Amino acid sequence: MRANQNGRESGVLPPLAIPETIRGLLEGKVSIITGASHGIGEATAVAFAKAGEKVVLAARSERALEGVARTIENGGGSALVAPTDVTDPASVKRLVDLTLERFGRLDAAFNNAGGGHALAPLAEIPVEDYDRTISVNARGTFLWMKYEIPAMLRTGGGAIVNMSSTAGLQGVNGLAGYVAGKHAVIGLSRAAAMDYAVENIRINVVAPGPILTEHLADPRIRERAALAVPMGRAGGREEVATVVAWLCSDLSSFVTGVVIPVDGGRLSGGRFERPSATSAAAPALAKTAEEAGRGAPKEA
Question: Which residue among 64, 80, 181, 293 is least crowded, i.e. fewest CB within 10 A of its CB?
Answer without folding.
Answer: 80
